[in-house]
Amino acid sequence: MGGQPMFILSEDTERTRGQDAQSSNIAAGKAVSEAVRTTLGPRGMDKMLVSDAGDVVITNDGATILGEMDIEHPAAQMITEVAETQEDEVGDGTTTAAVLAGQLLAKAENLLDDDVHPTTIVEGYHEAAQLAHEAVDEQVLDGDDLDDDRLRGVARTSMTGKGTGDVGAEALAETVVEAVRQVEGDDGVARDEISIRTQTGASSSATELVEGVVSEEEPVREDMPKSVENASIAVLDVEFDIREANVDAEYDVSSVDQLNAAIDAEESQFEQYADALADLDVDVAFVTEDIEDRAAAYLAEEGVLAFEGVDDDEARSIVQATGASRVGAIEDLEESDLGEAEQVRVESFGEDELAFVEGGAATETVTVFARGGTDHVTDELERALHDGLDVVTAALDEGGVVPGGGASEVAIAAHVRDQTASIEGRRQLAVEAFADAIDVLPRTLAENTGMDPIDALVDLRSLHDSEGRAGLISEGQTGRADDPVEAGVFDPAAVKHEAIESATEAATMIARIDDVISADN
Description:
Strand content: 15-25%
Number of helices: 15
Largest sheet: 7 strands, mixed
Helix content: 40-55%
Structural class: alpha+beta
Distance between the termini: 30 Å
């Protein structure tokens, strides 16, 4: 080779190695975590996110904030993935997971400065995470006590502090628990059968639970009925138009009589559509295809309330709510295919019309009809309701509930520290660092609640040591250390488990990176 250098990477490739790579990645992860830290807790602050197009989102939902941010740094993107995973798996705790990941990185940075090897940090963090899971399991409250009151506490805890207009978390929690109980069965909660429909034009306190479906489809004609009691319902995958012939053919119309005969034949076909529904006493037809104007006129004459272009999801929901069967041809429709509902009504909201299908014979789906004075309010209300529904579902289906208000985090940190002495070598330093990172969560809650974070943490530790349980209870412009169970503040155990798991995985993955190679395209 004559001593000539060998170039493996292209000249345009950028490479960052060693401590520089670790510092850059950790700084990026911490920056993303810090962006959502002030949103944590019942008195967390909101963020205003403005897109390039000028669209504005106002929220304190961690997943929404991180999802809307235009993040380019790959390590920072890994923290956003923590929030996405948390949201997908349990529906809440995204801010907790992101803040914890950032703090684990911050503690890892200190350990790296003290010459602790990244592999040792990773091993210590994973060992500490297992101890944290043990602590969460020990905190789970008796499952037999998971009644509606406790479930309302779970929902209320999740939604308190969200921008929900003039309706409080207590009232929303009632709606959330009622909705979940409606779709709960022997196999658990059918979460997919709960829909949220938003509509501006009224205060948030007008939010209600509809035992059935709220559809955005409008009646095909204005002269159709606006309300039908004890409705017989057909769901059809049919196009109400002239049937096309199976073979290509041309017709030579040479006289007015022939033209009139052709028109009469078409009219007869449109009339047959309406007659077929009328003969089966169909009151309401939800059609996934188009309804030709002349066919719609005959349906109106028969007093049938018809909707066209119903999307597949809504058709499925209507089937679930009414017990109807979807039919692909008018001639195949039978009385046994029809569903029932106590009422189908069409209501106007400004320029919009919505159809309410309520009290179906086989009601297996419900809709939370959320109201708000502005789009910003309804959007945030929808996010709060999603969180509330998800945490109640998680509490019922995935391991029960634990005390909220930071109580679980205090217990986790205490348990991890108690076990530190049994861990040999430098891994002990990483385990202690993990406990310190966990402590940042109740400290942040205290700070956002208006308390002195150091004093609050001291009070929490003292109360935990004496009573076995201590959390922060928000009241007025500040808070106090007390028993969160007595105050009705709860979190699903699944949220804590997922936050620990996803935050630890992200932090350890970033901490192990010592070489960043980026190609300039």
